[in-house]
Amino acid sequence: MTTPAKWKWLTLTTCLLPTLAVGCSTTLRDAVLSGVIDFVSSAVPAALEALLPIARVLQPA
Question: Does the global pTM surpass 0.85?
Answer without folding.
Answer: no
